């Protein structure tokens, strides 16, 4: 979605380190329209060049950006393996069950991708095993 503009140079590492060069703004005010006005696709919402332009060279300025988390989450969901697990089953089996986080739950968007920057829930155990 960034192939035809200057954001195409942003790497996965820069999104992970929150140095994409794209400002996100005050998070609750930006995330709310993403959640409710994006037709269930926050990742696509975050690619709008008018709303989220490149402001500084990638890798130079650190600024928290939930949009990067949403895009990375979609990338993981679309490129993951094994294909036999649904987007609902995959994080639980691949990550949470392996570390004993059996109560962890991620809410999904209408497009069946988990958001990635919010909406994850878990209970805390006060006993040690």
3D architecture notes:
The longest helix is centred in the middle third of the chain and has 14 residues, at 66-79. The mean pLDDT is 82. Helix content is 31%, strand content 3%. With 129 residues, the protein is mainly alpha-helical. The protein has five helices and two strands. It has helices at 12-16, 27-36, 42-45, 66-79, 90-96; strands at residues 105-106, 120-121. It is globular and about 45 Å long. A two-stranded antiparallel sheet has the order 1-2. The relative contact order is 0.17.
Order of helices and strands: HHHHHEE
Task: Note the quaternary state here.
Answer: single chain
Number of strands: 2
Class by alpha and beta content: mainly alpha
* Spatial gap, N to C terminus: 46 Å
**Strands in their spatial order, largest beta sheet:** 1-2
Instruction: List segments where confidence is low: pLDDT < 50 over at least 5 consecutive residues.
Output: none
* Global Rg: 16 Å
Per DSSP, the total helix count is: 5
> How many strands, what sense, and barrel or not for the largest sheet?
2 strands, antiparallel
The mean pLDDT is 82
Give the overall shape. globular
